[in-house]
Amino acid sequence: MRASPIAPTVDFSAEGVQHGFLRLPYSRDDSAWGSVMIPVTVVKNGEGPTALLTGGNHGDEYEGPIALFDLARTLKAEDVTGRVIIVPAMNYPAFLAGTRTSPIDKGNMNRSFPGAPDGTVTAKIADYFQRTLLPLADIVLDFHSGGKTLDFLPFCAAHILPDKTQEAKAFDLVSAFGAPWSMKMLEIDAVGMYDTAAEEMGKVFVTTELGGGGTATARSAGIAKRGVANVLKAAGILKGTVEAAETTWLDMPDGDCFSFAEDGGLIEPLYDLGDEVEAGAVVARIYPVGRTGAPPLEVKAKMDGILAARHFPGLVKPGDCVSVLAAVVAG
Ligand SMILES: [Zn+2]
Predict the structure, then answer these.
(1) How many Å lie between the centroid of ligand 1 and the Cα of residue 32?
(2) Could you tell me which of 218, 215, 196, 217 has the C-alpha nearest to residue 207?
(3) Ligand 1 centroid vs 220 CA: distance in angstroms?
(4) Which of 85, 158, 199, 230 is the one with CA 20 to 30 A from 168?
(5) Do the beta carbons of residue 153 and residue 66 sit within 8 Å?
(6) 122-170 pLDDT, tens per residue?
(7) CA angle at 214 for the pair 195 and 266, rounded to the nearest 5°
(8) How many A from CA of 321 to the centre of ligand 1?
(9) Ligand 1 centroid vs 167 CA: distance in angstroms?
(10) pTM for the structure as a whole
(11) How far, in Å, from the CA of 2 to the mean position of ligand 1?
């Protein structure tokens, strides 16, 4: 396969703190020999594990970029053993546009792996992570939130994996992260995900969903900042002890946790995030908006659980995810 067109302005093997860019040539109308300049920070101090920290995989999710721009400006080499690679806004064109996908090619970064060196801008960024950055990493933390269309209980998550040693290491880091909720996560659509790419390479991968609605709150940003420091401490990369926090473990047992809209309209939520819901309960009503007098469609829960995520905008379209339930894990 051909080489990546991305040229980093940092040296990943050099000691100390470096702030630079992953420079991706992008020839276009307003810049014939222009580039996409993706900010990157590398902090290295001696031998030790490497953590790869990413936010902005989706461009409208903000806790990760907040925590990682902050960490990049404050992390000192003497506090690190090993290496930390920080990319606060992985899909940088999407991040600048405030959209989930790239305005250049509509690429959804988290459905673009393994990417291609001769593909779209999004595919080229994915390929660089696949073939250059992921192989450098021992642990990978990728921040997500709900973006403009979903809202989540704040949780850190890892996946059930065939390799139980790898899975246990990931759940240990989820525990260390110390979000109010911790999730054993099921994906609707795992093909092409960064998560899957990292896990198939044997990396210890953890992710988050820390809120949503296309913004961050003081609380959710604080959870992200404390969480990333805790993960680095638990991995032995950052000096200091993990700041312990209460967490409740949740499980997404199967596809029954998701409910989707079968019609569009005006959505009335009947439960809020964190509420307990029983199987068969009406989670939300969807009112047809073409005329008055028509009954609303009722969206029902298919399992007992707590409401872990919900559709955010007030209007819903057919096929939208209305709610996600999760089961509290005993113990
Ligand atoms: Zn996301």
Answers:
(1) 31
(2) 196
(3) 15
(4) 85
(5) no
(6) 999 999 999 999 999 999 999 999 999 999 999 999 999 999 999 999 9
(7) 110
(8) 14
(9) 21
(10) 0.97
(11) 29
Q: Which amino acid is at 165?
A: T
Q: Which helix (H) or strand (E) holds 166?
A: helix 164-177
Q: How far is the CA of 182 from the centre of ligand 1 (A)?
A: 17
Do the Cβ atoms of 267 and 289 come closer than 8 Å? Answer: no
What CA–CA distance (Å, rounded) separates 136 from 173? Answer: 19
> In this predicted model, what pLDDT tens digit does every residue of 215-253 receive, in sequence order?
999 999 999 999 999 999 999 999 999 998 999 999 998
Three-state secondary structure call for residue 229: helix
Distance from the alpha carbon of residue 122 to the mean position of ligand 1, in angstroms: 15
Beta strands in 88-154 (DSSP E): 139-142, 150-152
Helices (H) and strands (E) in the chain, counts: 7, 19
Question: Among all chains, which residue has been given the structure tokens 């403009």?
Answer: 148
User: How close is the Cα of 38 to the center of ligand 1, in Å?
Assistant: 18
CA of 66 relative to ligand 1 center, distance in Å: 14
Q: Would you mind telling me the total number of residues written for the chain in this entry?
A: 331
Task: For residue 212, report the distance from its CA to the centre of ligand 1, in Å.
Answer: 9
